[in-house]
Amino acid sequence: MPEYTGYVGRSLEFLKSNDIAVGDTVKLVGDLTYSGIIMPRYEHSDDKHIVLKLSSGYNVGLEIDKLEKIEKLFTSGKSIDTFQKLEENPSLPKVLLLSTGGTIASKVDYRTGAVTPILTAEELNLSVPELAKIANIDTEVIFSEYSENIVPDHWLQIAKKLIEYSNSDYSGIIIAHGTDTMHYTSSFLSFALAGYPIPIVLVGSQRSSDRASSDAALNLIGATKFLVECKTNGVYVIMHHNESDETIACHFGTRVRKNHTSKRSAFQTIGGDPAYIIINNKIQRNVKDDFFKVKEFKPKINLDTKVALVKYHPGYDPRLLDKIIDMGFKAIIFEGTGLGHIGKTMYDCVKKAHGKNIFLGMTSQCIDGRIGMTVYESGRDLLDLGIIPLENMIPEVALVKAMWALGNSQNNEEIKKIMLENIASEMSY
Amino acid sequence: MPEYTGYVGRSLEFLKSNDIAVGDTVKLVGDLTYSGIIMPRYEHSDDKHIVLKLSSGYNVGLEIDKLEKIEKLFTSGKSIDTFQKLEENPSLPKVLLLSTGGTIASKVDYRTGAVTPILTAEELNLSVPELAKIANIDTEVIFSEYSENIVPDHWLQIAKKLIEYSNSDYSGIIIAHGTDTMHYTSSFLSFALAGYPIPIVLVGSQRSSDRASSDAALNLIGATKFLVECKTNGVYVIMHHNESDETIACHFGTRVRKNHTSKRSAFQTIGGDPAYIIINNKIQRNVKDDFFKVKEFKPKINLDTKVALVKYHPGYDPRLLDKIIDMGFKAIIFEGTGLGHIGKTMYDCVKKAHGKNIFLGMTSQCIDGRIGMTVYESGRDLLDLGIIPLENMIPEVALVKAMWALGNSQNNEEIKKIMLENIASEMSY
User: pTM (2 decimals)?
Assistant: First the structure.
């Protein structure tokens, strides 16, 4: 029974009249000649294009009016259910792939084009056959959530699972994860599992496979290569690097941020180059220092979510800060302006918060650059009020670190010490 | 009485032994030869450097140990108090310089090196003598605040002052402003004064004149050139463009953000090139479209600050959103994750807010890129709950726009219409 998922109107007619269906391998001749597998279509489908998965891992959308010739090379034979487990090659290193959900695990099947709402880690592995040439990949699903629905309890589940494998013979561990909150998760793992002996990489995809130019396969391949070849540890985010080529970037998990809603190259290291760049078979190291500043692996997987992130702006109502204080929050991370400022209208509430022994940390809504609270009067006033400048920590990372610090200490002086100790490259110099 | 402000230890001795003081014009020979004016030093002063203001407007810090020769060319004669009003050249266009405070107006005197905590607009004009060659500059102080202390009432004061000059013979108006919240102010003026007949530019400086490489003079000169030469209207932010040269960038006031705490090139147009680039005497236009989409100037200088900016993150406590609803906020601008998502834990509160007729707008904490709420389940759920996707509006701009919209309408449907109407290039396509 041929499949035409997502094709409508003229594009559906075009496929049927050429005896082509989703999953078939075809050669298409237009301005250029393309060979690949017909993919299903989902969101925003018009009826003017068909989508082809190229052997590079990229999908392209082709306008049917510009195609001169279409030739079927192979008919889709197997569905995903009939996939055989890949043969292991005992000479290859072992990698563990843990799935938590997200785009990368949701609408992805690179061979047949079939899409399941939840793709297991094993299917993810099987659907990118290139992976089996680099490593023997074991797979496990931890849970399946789009990352906007990931909450700190999920971080704990992932951390606990990783602890189970801290003494394994894996070269490294891939965590397939939605991109929306990936850098929050990577930050938590960086602190909670500081010193973890083998590298951990979080991998996602910005575009699902039913859209042109999906990046899922390339990101997974890049991550696997990194784990197998780089003899280092740390927590990393591996994603597409830029629009123009097939470069993959490997970012420190505490220095990275999603800086674009939709681009494949949305993830950027703040204030520097990515830690590693993966181009084809070469891995280029850009950082000198190790990721973990703490060398001994002593997991601390506790957290306390009573931390508020307060982004200051003109017109911010200090009564809102007052509510935060009254609600029993134990730490406030400010996203101040510029070098780390908040307006004078906030001072009374800040005094009150300090009096209640709430940890008060300052980051900047500029995102890039270091906090500098001794330069201007305002900064010095805020230091006097008990606000702690958090160097160049990214606001979201400071938030997660504060949750983790609160989970591991009740003592305000100790919390301050933890916040200012560079544990996992969250501060750079 | 010679002045040595900020010089201590060896650098003070160096100046004294060479009979040089702050304000003197000197020639220094080291690896290179520099001529300029000795500047005072303030924050973080070591005793190894002296600071020289070059004729380009830049300051440089020079290590005294590396200087081979120092020669005094002129002794500082006049103090700022004895400045004469510059002669007007009737053939030059007129520009108005309004001062509101900030670094640019606080520690700046480019000729003598004398520093006053509050420099008036007139002194600012007099202290950059290059300005008088480009335009006849009238000056006025509106108020004097570091921009972290600027509140929406200040926006109204600036807007009212600008209305007074809407029928003047000025080529354009410069607003000297602190950099911390400059893009909030530029956004408010863009909406409130949509269609304003002559160009308005906000100018600041990232580094005060007592530090090496101050950018104040160059930014002011660039702004004046822009106002005199560009026959356009709109609200712009003019700041240093990059680290490597003397390029000045002119940004649309609704598409710009301070993206670094300290770099001179901190200001960036989000998702595109700056509207104009000013290199030496050339002004290059990068945008095709006019800034204002509204052509007729009908000022609407009302606002209502009952808008909350809610940056969603894993572990965000929905009870905080609940408090915002109960406190009587009339609009909430979400900084969602990715394409515009917030977690399921928030849905009940969002429903409640929608039921209370609170305007709910979605922007992204990615900052760059467009909101896309039809791509994933979560986005579609949130649309159903009444959240309005705000295209690619920068979160801070959406916040200011919502304050302004609430000030001009009580009707929720009308507010929604205002928020989605592209008034001053706040959305780009």
Answer: 0.83
